[in-house]
Write a structure and sequence with these properties.
This protein has 507 residues and is mostly helical. 70% of the residues lie in helices and 7% in strands. A hairpin with a 4-residue loop joins strand 6 and strand 7.
């Protein structure tokens, strides 16, 4: 047993010693391998450095070579450009010399022609004197004699032809004209709707009238000041009346009040807000109105400024006629008459549409609507027939085309229908417009409205430009100017309103 244990111990110790020796041997091998790897890495690093140096040298050589080639090419191009420039400069110098020579030759020829013309004139005068002496007649007398001989020979023939044509024209002219006008009028029979000076607005109940008036009349005062109209709240149940000679202001006022009634909030701040919104809407609608009119008449390619002015005619009146309705009527009639006479239908409609375009600006510019309209159409490139129609329809010049004549006839037909025009209304409108113009001509005036059937003028001034004393003086001056320049029955009250508004914003 002891021997066995002794053998086992010896074997165990031998195994341990073997393991230790094997481990040391392996460690020694690992260190050898590590050293070998480091040596190989260093060799690779040296090879990489050498390769990089070689690559850099090669790239530098290639770059230097390409740079030299590019430089040579640029120098070659520069030499070619300089060569061509020198040639062009030489050509220009030669051309300049040729031009100078030609100019000298032309001048010499001109002088020679002048000398020859003088010689010719002298010789011609000598020949005429010889002929006058030989015939016993002066040059003027000889011309008159020849003209008389030709007249005598052709007078009989001309008179015979004229008599035949004249008799034929007498037979047919009146009949043809009547046929043309009757066809045109029967094919276009536009309805006449007289423009009134008032609009009525229906209310749901009498309580709404109180809202419109407001506490101590604040709402109705703000409405009249903003809108520039008279608001009449009378005894008619559930109705208020908007009164103004200006169609545009009256239409805006009607829309503003209708929106306020529908909204239910009627107060000064809300009134001004709705007024600005409605006015912007109406201004945009004016252009749309003009575009619709062009579409209706089949007219294309018109300047946007003229299209907008056509829309503005919707809110202008002349002798009681709505200006746009009259213009449409004239355009359609002119087109029908021109088509009957063999003219250009579209061009005649265009001339008819624009014949009164100046009326859209007469309240802004001085002068007659004829001159204003013609000048505007010239500036915006309208055809000659349109310009001539504008001048001719009031007799400023003769109609020189079928289209212009058709517009003149159509304008006369539109105005001549029974009830189409009312002189009394027109004179009233001109008077109130003149009163507003007088007020607006003063410095510091923001707006001026003729109200109460023209018996009162409300002038709103800028409080920063006009103080209280100047406002009193302005009222007197406006009244005096109206007295001197305008004829009117009764008296006109001048109200100058000065209001200072201050605003601040908290952010």
């Amino acid at each position: 047993m002891e021997e066995i244990l002794g053998a086992f111990a010896i074997a165990t110790i031998s195994a341990i010693i073997g393991f230790i020796i094997a481990k040391k041997i392996n460690n020694a091998k690992f260190e050898i391998y590590l050293e070998q790897a480091k040596a190989k890495a260093k060799v690779i690093e040296l090879e990489a450095e050498n390769l990089l140096k070689d690559t850099k040298l090669k790239a530098k050589k290639e770059f230097d070579s390409e740079f030299k080639e590019a430089k040579k090419l640029i120098e070659k191009k520069e030499r070619e450009i300089n060569y061509h420039l020198e040639i062009e400069v030489e050509n220009i110098k030669k051309d300049k010399a040729l031009v100078a020579q030609s100019k000298t030759k032309i001048e010499a020829l001109r002088k020679g022609l002048e000398v020859q013309e003088k010689d010719y004139t002298k010789k011609l005068e000598k020949i005429i004197k010889i002929l006058e002496n030989a015939s016993g007649l002066t040059q003027a007398e000889a011309k008159e004699l020849m003209i008389e001989l030709v007249k005598d020979e052709s007078r009989d023939i001309t008179a015979s032809i004229f008599r035949k044509v004249y008799k034929e024209a007498q037979k047919n002219t009146k009949k043809e004209v009547q046929n043309i006008l009757s066809h045109a009028v029967t094919r276009y029979a536009g309805e006449f709707a007289a423009e009134r000076l008032t609009n009525n607005i229906s209310l749901k109940d009498e309580e709404t009238k109180g809202k419109i008036i407001g506490k101590e009349g604040r709402n109705i005062k703000t409405l009249e000041m903003c809108l520039g109209v008279d608001i009449i709240i009378g005894d008619i149940p559930n109705t208020i009346t908007i009164s103004s000679f200006n169609l545009y202001r009256r239409a805006i006022a009607t829309k503003v009040i209708e929106e306020l009634i529908e909204d239910g909030r009627i107060q000064p701040a809300r009134i001004e807000e709705v007024y600005q919104s409605v006015k912007s809407e109406f201004d945009a609608g004016i252009l749309k109105e003009g575009e619709n009119t062009l579409t209706e008449l089949g007219i294309k390619n018109m300047h946007p400024e003229l299209v907008e002015l056509i829309g503005r005619l919707r809110y202008r009146a002349s002798y009681g006629q709505n200006a746009l309705a009259h213009t449409l009527e004239v355009a359609n009639l002119a087109g029908l008459i021109a088509s009957q006479l063999g003219g250009d239908t579209v061009k005649a409609r265009r001339a008819g549409l624009l014949h009164d375009i100046g009326k859209a600006l007469t309240h802004e510019m001085k002068g007659s609507h004829v001159d204003i309209g013609a000048d505007l159409c010239k500036k915006l490139g309208e055809p000659e027939e349109v310009i001539n129609a504008i001048y001719a329809h009031h007799g400023h010049e003769e109609a020189n085309s079928i289209e212009s004549a058709a517009v003149c006839a159509a304008d006369a037909l539109s105005a001549a229908r029974p009830g189409a025009r009312r002189e009394v209304l027109e004179s009233f409108l001109k008077r109130v417009e003149e009163i507003e113009e007088i007020a607006n001509s003063h410095r510091g005036v923001m707006n001026a409205y003729a109200i109460n059937a023209g018996r009162e003028i409300r002038v709103i001034v800028n409080a920063k430009l006009v103080n209280d004393d100047e406002a009193i003086l302005m009222a007197t001056q406006i009244a005096q100017t109206i007295e001197d320049k305008v004829q009117y029955p009764g008296e006109i009250k001048v109200n100058v309103i000065r209001e200072l508004r201050a605003r601040g914003y908290a952010r």
